[in-house]
Amino acid sequence: MVNDKESQKIVDIIQNFARQSSLFVLAYGTGCGAIEIPPTMTSRYDAERFGIRGAATPRQADVLLITGYLATKSLKRVIRAYEQMQNPKYIIGFGSCTINGGMYWDSYNTINRLDMYIPVDVYINGCMPRPEAVIAGFAKLQKLIQAGKADGWDRYQKNLEFYRGNQKKIIHNWVMPDYNW
Amino acid sequence: MDIWKLLLTGSVTTVLAFVVGMLYMGLRRKITARVQNRVGPPIYQNFLDVMKLWSKKSSINHGFMQHVAPLWMIATSITTLMFIPILNNGSTFFTNLTFEGDLIMLLYLMVVGSLGMALGAGQTGNPNSAIGVTRGLTQMVGFEIPWVMALVALMIQHRTTTVAGLLDVQVQSGTWLMLSSPFAFIAALLAIPGMFRYSPFDIVGAPAELASGPISEFGGKYLGTMMTNGAIFAFVKLTLFVDIFMGGASNLGFLLLKTFALYMFPVLWGLVSPRFRTEQAVRFFWGWPVFFGVLGLIQAAI
Q1: Does domain A19-170 match CATH 3.40.50.12280?
Q2: Which ranges of chain B have pLDDT less than 70?
Q3: What is the ipTM of this complex?
Q4: Among B48, B55, B223, whose Cβ lies nearest the Cβ of A60?
């Protein structure tokens, strides 16, 4: 009765509704994109009306916002922050740099495709995306969560060797525990 | 009173405290947003937050004490709630364990939750947590002194240590204690923002400075339990204050009206105030609030 498929479906709908309407964002201010976050959160665009608010630490956060290019050094910190977050967790890649490297595509110390290292649920295109685009990206993520399709955290656990291998190719002095959540 | 009725009324009171506290916190977010010229989240947003935190699929902890700390806090809050009379009309429904404990015991009980939080946060090993805990205990030393002075003044003046006794005094004389003992009231009122830890006394959490302080390593279900505890404990503090100083309430409508009016004091003060440093907060509490506390004690002794 409790564990049959139909009742699980109802529970999933309720839980996904709660998840999509309350997103605690950990804004990882790596690149220039971080400057678009304050206007998104404050009175002009007011993302809090959709339940989006900032989280202070990775443990409390649901969404990791990668704002812009990732240097190879900061990739290590992103991985640590991502693995400390509690499941289910989502990643939004913000700006062209996370998609194909953007204007840093031939730089020696930035990564080009974020998706090779951590699973991204939603990309927001642009250099820079304006706050409207950011909110549109969050709305897209909310639709995916409600449909149960935002499963980046699941893909990360299932394909851990793939992601770990790619990460270790970039980070040579790997001094973290191999699995730290 | 038999045990089943006690359990029933206790659970109803707990659910009432949870719902009211959550709605007040939602209203606080809405009012904050309107003051900042934003639309703000819906007032039921905090329920969604707690639901989401409880439906997290993983929650790691760093040891036994951190695992127990949120339970410790919520158990303390509910225990405190049981000893506080909700209504003053003598109905048997909301008098849970009211006549078993007095104000002195409540003074002790209300800080046990903070002790659990300190122990749990200490085990996480996060430096932000340790700083937050020391700040919280320092601030507690600050606001507890005028608060205790105000309560002791009332206890001396009316020769009773129970909340129910103070309620009876107000019902029989027809005046609220905030009018007959104004100095004690002012001292206690100025201690209230410190208890709620809203700005300018949000030195414990301090999101921009300490990464939310003691709770920085608590995620998922632990954080959800802590938010639930915060809602219940807010209701506990407001109801206790209304019972002691504002004559209690004869029905739930008046209770909501009075507690909400009281709740607006720390909220609206916080909206227009930046954060104090720790020593500024303690200096504030040991200044005018203690002065009014002394005046209240003199008034009680004469």
Answers
A1: yes
A2: 1, 89-93, 95-101
A3: 0.87
A4: B223
